[in-house]
């Protein structure tokens, strides 16, 4: 499970960085749903790191609320996974 989470976080971090780069060039963007899906699949730390380091999506309140919901869902999922 740890290798999977490590890979997911690296991919998610890279995707957030790529999306920010695309935004700066005014080119095709990755959808918010895709960013959130990567986050919920185990890339929370990569997403949070990408948001902070690239200053990406941090001022968009609607995205932040959805991201917080994703974090809470993941926390509940991992808690239940560890408990059973």
Mass-distribution shape: globular
Structural class of the helices, strands and pairings? Answer: mainly alpha
DSSP E strands, number: 0
Helix content: over 70%
Could you tell me the radius of gyration in angstroms? 13 Å
The proportion of strand residues reads under 5%
List SSEs in N-to-C order. HHHH
Transmembrane segments: 33-54, 63-82
InterPro entries: Cold_shock_CspA, DUF1294
Protein name: DUF1294 domain-containing protein
Pfam families: DUF1294
Description:
The protein is an all-alpha fold and 84 residues long. It contains 4 helices and no strands. The chain has helices spanning 2-24, 32-40, 44-53, 61-83. Helix 1 (2-24) packs parallel to helix 3, helix 2 packs across helix 3 and helix 2 runs parallel beside helix 4. The longest helix is centred in the N-terminal third of the chain and has 23 residues, at 2-24. It is globular, with a radius of gyration of 13 Å. It starts with a helix and ends with a helix. The mean pLDDT is 95.
């Amino acid at each position: 499970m740890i290798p999977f989470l490590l890979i997911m976080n690296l991919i998610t971090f890279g995707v957030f960085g790529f999306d920010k780069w695309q935004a700066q060039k005014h080119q095709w963007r990755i959808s918010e749903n895709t960013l959130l899906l990567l986050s919920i699949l185990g890339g929370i730390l990569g997403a949070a790191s990408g948001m902070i380091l690239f200053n990406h999506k941090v001022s968009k309140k609607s995205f932040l609320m959805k991201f917080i919901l994703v974090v809470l869902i993941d926390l509940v999922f991992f808690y239940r996974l560890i408990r059973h």
